[in-house]
Design goal:
Blueprint: H1 2-46, H2 49-52, H3 57-104, E1 108-111, E2 115-116, H4 121-139, E3 145-146, H5 149-153, H6 163-169, E4 173-182, E5 185-194, E6 199-209, H7 213-229, H8 248-261, H9 266-282, H10 287-302, H11 310-326, H12 331-343, H13 347-360, H14 365-377, H15 381-394, H16 405-417, H17 421-428, H18 436-448, H19 457-465, H20 471-476, H21 483-496
Length: about 500
């Protein structure tokens, strides 16, 4: 429906602009032609056309009238050809605005955590894992807007039918359900509610073997989408490796490992690795546990929980390589590969892998983050700003954080590289705890705009906060692609010493 509206509206815009141009041209020509005929009739009465042109007055007026008629379509066609480029400008502008308008009108869907009817921890892993997969699959469909995993799981225990919930979140539709597992079977109840009309528009119950879970997820996703926006071709579901494993033990261990990874705690990280190794042992050809093991090892090194040093890095690279070998289209694998190449300052490969991750899952905040970084390092600053702002809109507070500082600082730095210093100052006022990159960028802004920084509170806090740091290593960690900016930061750092 959105695509049809887009085409229809575009045609209306185009025909409106063309029609307006041709009407103005036709009116001008008609007035000019009429005036020429009237003026010529006066001239004919006072000048001998037979002596000057060899034509009788009647023949001259007839030829003039014919010339005016023939000239009419010629003038219209010539005007259209000549004005085509200038005509396209307002059309393209209107088209761009139309796309934005339609995008903002995407149906907004929230996925409620499903009820675990088994009331056990093992069942909880499976239930939450299935729901998370549904969120991921639905988020890949560009025609709708789906709340992020973090947001959705924050709804646990909330009454989504209450007026307060409706007003706060403004969802058009909500998916809810329950799951009971027994031995090798799953009983799933799911329903889709229209929040504007307070009614269930689709519901179904499934009694399936666990091995059918991937096909069942596809069916649920298709039913939700077609109920919301009608029949469309959902290309995102036609991936080569849609069913990663036939071994449900491997799948369930993967779900447990993934859930533990997302707790961002050292003990949970340790346990996640055990679960993911068990998943790999159950099915070494399942790409998912390799992907999430690499992610867990990366988290381990980033958070400073690593005790193995180079051994961990070696295992990380080996695991990542295996995940990519088994499924080079997996969004999470490509995301991690992109982050690894950012660390290596390989900005070309950074963009390759980040683009693949973005194409596969354009609504995941972590994917948007690395894709924005990739665009930034490849001098596509304005596009990076759009991606970072989309990331912030989807999930202002990322996993493991307590405030929105991290995404805001990404947006700040993008505007800094775009030389929009006023916007930087505006964003900085929203940041509670700035990092070193933001601080030195702000210091540079004050110097370039000839503002007094010495009396500013943020400057004093930064001087105290960043005392005794290794500026060389810190600036290196910014992974800048611009030598001029890098040297400028080094000079500022030297002046602070």
């Amino acid at each position: 429906m959105s695509n049809l509206k887009l085409v229809s509206s575009f045609l209306k815009i185009r025909f409106h602009n063309i029609g307006s141009l041709l009407l103005k041209t036709a009116t001008t020509y008609a007035v000019g032609g009429f005036a020429a005929i009237q003026l010529s009739s006066i001239v004919v009465d006072n000048v001998s056309t037979e002596e000057v042109l060899g034509l009788t007055p009647e023949s001259f007026m007839q030829l003039l009238f014919i010339a005016v008629l023939i000239g009419f379509p010629i003038v219209l066609i010539s005007t259209f050809i000549y004005k085509r480029k200038s005509l396209n400008a307002p059309i393209e502008e209107s088209y761009s605005e139309l796309i934005k308008d339609i995008s903002s009108q995407k149906p907004k869907i929230g996925i409620m955590p499903f009820e675990n009817l088994n009331n056990d921890n093992d069942g909880a892993f499976l239930v939450d894992g299935i729901v998370e997969d549904l969120i991921t699959e639905l988020s890949m469909v560009k025609e709708i807007s789906v709340a992020t995993r973090k947001t959705c799981f924050g709804f646990r225990g909330k009454d989504y039918t209450s007026e307060a919930f409706k007003q706060e979140w403004g969802f058009d539709y909500v998916v809810s359900g329950s799951i009971r597992s027994s031995d090798d079977r799953l009983r799933i109840s799911v329903e889709l509610s229209d929040m504007d009309h307070d009614e269930v528009i689709w519901s179904s119950k499934y009694d399936k073997v666990k091995a059918d879970i991937f096909d069942l997820q596809d069916e649920i996703v298709i039913k939700v989408i077609t109920s919301v926006i009608g029949e469309i071709e959902i290309t995102s579901l036609k991936r080569a490796h849609r069913k990663p494993t036939e071994d449900m033990t491997s799948y369930e261990y993967t779900l447990k490992g993934r859930a533990l990874n997302q707790k961002f705690e050292k003990e949970a990280n340790d346990e996640a690795l055990i679960m993911l190794d068990a998943a790999i042992e159950a099915d070494a050809l399942n790409p998912l546990p390799h992907s999430w093991k690499a992610c867990t090892l990366g988290q381990r090194m980033f958070m400073g929980w690593d005790e193995q040093g180079s051994d961990t890095m070696s295992t990380f690279l080996e695991t990542l390589s295996k995940a990519n070998e088994l499924d080079d289209s997996n969004w999470n694998t490509n995301r991690i590969l992109a982050e690894a190449h950012l660390t290596l300052n390989d900005f070309e490969k950074l963009k390759i892998y980040a683009s693949k991750a973005y194409k596969a899952n354009p609504s995941n905040p972590h994917v948007l983050s690395i894709y924005g970084d990739a665009l930034l390092r490849n001098n596509e600053v304005e596009n990076a700003i759009k991606i970072f702002e989309k990331m912030y809109e989807l999930e202002p507070i990322v996993a493991s954080d307590t405030n929105s500082d991290r995404p805001l600082q990404a947006i700040f730095f993008a505007y800094y590289l775009n030389n929009d210093f006023d916007k930087c100052l505006e964003i900085f006022n929203e940041i509670e705890d700035f990092n070193i990159r933001t601080w030195i960028s702000l210091l540079d802004i004050y110097k370039k705009t000839k503002r007094d920084h010495l009396s500013e509170n943020w400057y004093e806090l930064g001087v105290k906060k960043f005392t005794d740091i290794n500026w060389k290593n810190e600036i290196k960690s910014f992974h800048l692609n611009n030598k001029e900016i890098k040297d400028n930061f080094k000079n500022i750092a030297a002046s602070l010493a």
